[in-house]
Amino acid sequence: MDFVNAFWVGGLICALTQVLMEKTKLMPGRIMVLLVCTGVVLGALGIYEPVLHYAKAGASVPLLGFGNVLWKGVKEAVDEKGLMGIFCGGFTACATGVGAALLFSYLASFIFRSKMKR
Length: 118
Known about the structure:
118 residues, mainly alpha, 6 helices
């Protein structure tokens, strides 16, 4: 049942994002920032954590989950280091994911050849 819950929650997030892309004139970069910021706000309000426990990877993989990770990191760092935690908590929390994305994209650049769009 975990797979079904992850599938429909992740699919719902992606479908709503697709509707946002199709029905508004927002650029994709702005929509990505909107999703991350929404994840931060939902995490701060305590709404995203129950969704995360219910849908697991279906809620943690989309950009909303990345925003929630940033929120958790900042919250923990502020509890430990005080006000300076605002500046370092997000970096510490997302360092593994961003580092893995950079490493795997670099490795993929050796395997695949880039082409210009026409």
